[in-house]
Design goal:
It contains ten helices and no strands. By secondary structure, it is mainly alpha-helical. The longest helix has 47 residues.
Length: 294
């Protein structure tokens, strides 16, 4: 996630420089042809085209931002639920003989959020899980198609073991299970966002109409702008291409790009809170790098 107060022009240029370069070459070509082989430029209703396209792109960007914001809200719920689970484990499993189980539940939750982060970003999660669990404890879950869900199932089994051992009562078990349900619901929402793209119409038609508008733009402006057509048309095209790119950047909030939800920083927040709760020293908080918080 870009956290600079002022967006860097380099980020914008890096995102759209290829189509912008093609557009600039096209603008120059139209202008040269207009003066070398004079032709009557058609009176294109660019104002109507541009207004309709802007509304279309704005609606698409709003839909993409709603997905991005929902991803952030779900991870906010994950942070709160992780804290609640660790607090319940520390308060309910207060007996000395339950110390190992209490620590296991907390470490499994830290491993769980890091595994979920890697799954959403389509990265291997073995290393992150093994930072907190032994290989023998981690291997059964890592062998599953959904390792993070396997970790959550294992935590549920340990809570049941605590109830059977008499360390917690059924009411306390129900409370902890409800937190696990909240965690599972948040994970399901994240997986829905990751695995369900915008409908094809939301992806194809904005792309097609934006590039069509950029092609028509210098033809409609050349008689008015003359030699300034490449500059005026390229700047106008840059605005539409940038708005188009915004939707592409926000539609997947877990794609591991500079525009995504800062999963690494939020997982580190959970790690710090939970490890300090059991008296262990965590790593330092994640800091922005070159204006980007990962």
């Amino acid at each position: 996630m870009i956290v600079d107060a002022v967006p860097r022009i380099s980020h914008i240029v890096r995102d759209v420089w290829k189509p912008l370069l093609v557009l600039a070459i096209w603008d120059v070509a139209v202008t040269v042809v207009y003066y070398v082989l004079p032709f009557k430029a058609p009176a294109l209703p660019l104002t109507i085209f541009g207004t309709a396209l802007a509304l279309f792109l704005g609606f698409r960007d709003n839909s993409a931002y709603q997905r991005w914001w929902e991803g952030r809200v779900l991870w906010g719920a994950m942070i709160n639920a992780s804290r609640s689970l660790a607090r319940a484990a520390n308060n309910f499993l207060h007996l000395e003989e339950a110390t190992s189980l209490r620590r296991s539940i907390v470490l499994r939750q830290v491993a769980y959020v890091n595994a979920l982060r890697c799954q959403l970003r389509r990265q291997p999660c073995d290393e992150e899980v093994l930072r907190f669990l032994s290989r023998g404890e981690a291997e059964p879950t890592l062998a599953r198609a959904n390792p993070s869900n396997g970790l959550l199932d294992g935590t549920g089994h340990r809570i049941s073991e605590a109830q059977r051992a008499g360390w917690i009562d059924t009411i306390q078990q129900t409370q902890m299970e409800q937190v696990l349900i909240d965690i599972a619901n948040a994970q399901g929402g994240m997986e829905r966002l990751k695995n369900t793209p915008l409908p094809n119409q939301y992806r194809f038609f904005p792309y097609f109409f934006t590039h069509l508008f950029c092609i028509l733009l210098p033809i409609g402006l050349v008689e008015t702008l003359g030699f300034a057509t490449p500059l005026g048309s390229t700047v106008a095209g840059l605005m539409f291409l940038a708005v188009l790119r915004i939707g592409d950047d926000l539609v997947d909030p877990f794609a591991n790009t500079v525009h995504d939800v800062p999963l690494t920083a939020m997982c580190r927040t959970i790690e710090i809170d939970l490890l300090q709760g059991i008296g262990e020293t965590p790593l330092a908080p994640v800091k922005p790098v070159n204006g980007v918080l990962w």
